Amino acid sequence: MSCKIESKLPEVGTTIFTVMSQLAAKCNAINLAQGFPSFDPPRALCDRIHHHFKNGANQYAPMSGVESLRIAIADKTNRLQGRVIDADRNITVSCGATEGLFCAIQAVVRPGDEVIVFDPAYDSYSPAVTLAGGITRHVPLEIEGNGADFAINWQRLSDTLNDKTRLIIVNFPHNPTGAILQYADLNRLAALIRDRDCYLLSDEVYEHIVFDGETHRSLLSHDELYERTMVVSSFGKTFHATGWKIGYCIAPAYLTDEFRKVHQFATFSICTPVQHGIADFLNSDPEFYEALPAFYQQKRDTFCRLLENSRFKLKPARSTFFQIVDYSDISDQDDLALAKHWTRDIGIASIPLSVFCQRAFTGTRLRFCFAKDDATLEAAATRLNRL
Ligand code: PMP
Ligand code: GLN
């Protein structure tokens, strides 16, 4: 045996989140790179999970998810998106959004199929497409289109669609740019794919983190789109608990059936007491996620205010817990090299945007995570303001 293997993912290295977090730890830098909050999940939620741990909810959960959690998700979706969904037939609890995205892609993409993603695109999509035998087609978001930064360029999308297009992956609220969709965008998308045999995968993990009084336009809210859509979300963002890795997929029954065929052999089921605890908390404390926009808007405002006198150019993020900054007045180094250099030499870790793009069109931009306590944001700003 040659002890060499022909890689199934030859172009894939270690994810940027691991690379930057490891470098930040090694250099003792402030980690504004990988997206995770520096604060704890709500106490009442932890108490409910603890309760279920202590009271026997410790064996396999049903493959589709604990019933009370699926019902709580259905209720929330009905209330917020006006979509009546069946907890048995339309919802599957997943191991974070990552597993949900992976299963959704494996469920529908066949060898030779094309899948459209919008750059900058979250880094887990394309490798999952490759493993399914599909081909990823990258459509860059328009940096300054339609008055909104990082908007979909409908003409480019239309030009890329063809008979091989099997799936379009959308991610709004958008990581890393904070772009959001308006309802008119959903109509445009529907019109473009009306006569095509293609499905949609909507990554909505930041569904509850939208600012300035804007509304999250879920693909679930659109009748025509919902018929062919799988929506994936995650409780990691909503409950400050990225380490719990619990999410869900909502889809029409015919897509849910296919999704579950993959999910049952990817993980089968998800941590039982955590599912029970989240179900209880969703029902008892909807105020928690209702307050998230105000909570994170304040963080965003604090971070932007702290950078007011810096040499960075920025437009306050419209959603998520990430702020994009343009460093062109400070350096002309490429973004990956600069992110590493600043982690080592000024002690601030960030994420370069170009790693999310097939062609680096995003220029001199970095992403900072502002889901941090104020002292951390202030310490980071002190270093960034010296540049
Ligand atoms: N999609 C996007 C856009 C994300 O930002 C993340 C991670 N934060 C995920 C998916 C993965 O979510 P999870 O940690 O629940 O797997
Ligand atoms: N989604 C998180 C981010 O964008 C990281 C997730 C991960 O580390 N895999 O930073």
Summarize the structure.
The chain is built from 15 helices and 14 strands. The chain has 387 residues and is an alpha/beta fold. It folds into 2 domains: 120 residues, Alpha-Beta Complex (Aspartate Aminotransferase, domain 1); 246 residues, Type I PLP-dependent aspartate aminotransferase-like (Major domain) (Aspartate Aminotransferase, domain 2, 3-Layer(aba) Sandwich).
What series of H and E elements makes up the topology?
HEHHEHEHEEEHEHEHEHEHHHHEHEEEH
User: Structural class, from secondary structure content?
Assistant: alpha/beta
- The residue ranges in which pLDDT falls below 50 over 5 or more consecutive positions are none
Bin the helical content: 40-55%
Q: How is the quaternary structure best described?
A: single chain
CATH fold name of the largest domain, please? Aspartate Aminotransferase, domain 2
Number of domains: 2
Description:
By secondary structure, this protein is α/β, with parallel strands linked by helices. The protein folds into two domains: 16-41 and 291-384, Aspartate Aminotransferase, domain 1, CATH 3.90.1150; 43-288, 3-Layer(aba) Sandwich (Aspartate Aminotransferase, domain 2), CATH 3.40.640.10. Helix content is 40%, strand content 16%. The protein contains 15 helices and 14 strands. The protein has helices at 16-27, 43-54, 67-81, 96-108, 125-131, 154-160, 183-193, 223-226, 235-238, 253-266, 272-284, 286-290, 292-306, 335-345, 374-385, and strands at 30-31, 91-94, 114-119, 135-140, 142-145, 148-151, 165-170, 199-203, 229-234, 247-250, 322-326, 348-349, 351-352, 365-369. Helix 8 (223-226) links the parallel strand 8 and strand 9. Helix 1 (16-27) packs parallel to helix 14 and helix 4 (96-108) runs parallel beside helix 5. The longest helix is centred in the N-terminal third of the chain and has 15 residues, at 67-81. It starts with 15 loop residues before the first helix and ends with a helix. Glutamine binds at residues 15, 17, 34-35, 175.
